[in-house]
Amino acid sequence: xxxxxxxxxxxxxxxxxxxxxxxxxxxxxxxxxxxxxxxxxxxxxxxxxxxxxxxxxxxxxxxxxxxxxxxxxxxxxxxxxxxxxxxxxxxxxxxxxxxxxxxxxxxxxxxxxxxxxxxxxxxxxxxxxxxxxxxxxxxxxxxxxxxxxxxxxxxxxxxxxxxxxxxxxxxxxxxxxxxxxxxxxxxxxxxxxxxxxxxxxxxxxxxxxxxxxxxxxxxxxxxxxxxxxxxxxxxxxxxxxxxxxxxxxxxxxxxxxxxxxxxxxxxxxxxxxxxxxxxxxxxxxxxxxxxxxxxxxxxxxxxxxxxxxxxxxxxxxxxxxxxxxxxxxxxxxxxxxxxxxxxxxxxxxxxxxxxxxxxxxxxxxx
Length: 366
Description:
The chain is α+β, with helices and mostly antiparallel strands. The two termini are 28 Å apart.
């Protein structure tokens, strides 16, 4: 699954879903990208640049011939040491082929960017130490040397279940504007709600900001990745850099990448690459109503998907018009979410895939 937040505009322009949305107004892709922008408002400029680049590239192909493109590819291949290339006048492929070539060239550009990108771990370490130095209150350090989880209660009523071989550091008293703790290892947090006083967890090279929710963070020092898993509420995550810290401390709103229940994020510390996905086994949300029924009798598929969305907090994207004649009769009460989806799709002749913590359902209709 692509980590869209970490892409350059030219890399984004090669993504199949993004191209379906931009070039063909695909309804399912459009719904997905509308949802993605809502959860990633700080990436509006990235999406705009990607769309403009893709439209510009596409329109450019209408103004040049196949022979002109072939000549340029032939010249480029020799300039990088390719000696087996075919003569330009023998390259007579359809225009769709050149679209794929353009996508490949954009991918190469993106790979080059990742290969030349500097290691940002040093910057994260500096920013981490800067935040620690700003705290005026005495710091409390709590290390779990036992083989069992250790419960820690903070002065604001928040609780931390600290796992073995893990350490949590926090000020004896929080200041008036924010609550900040520092984690090395793994812990489950239940944060007391206070919209006027955001709660920050700094773990390795990743920062997590919440106003009141429950989530788990795994960030051992020797691990290559940091993982955040959300149980309830909404969580904002961002890399620990001077710029990101400055932006996300500016107000009490949740910025960066937003996670909701049953979503998780894996952060590759060396590349500062964020990848959002669904948890392996999504759980039913603890809704303030009776347990949701999954017994369907000739139920329109739109209502079926809406029931799953409400029960699991997972976005399901599908073409409403194309699937308007699809109905489901089934009892799915005890199956895990992905098993439910497999059975539904098998019944109506559809397929599903995960994409950036959403479910995309493809169908030819019923």
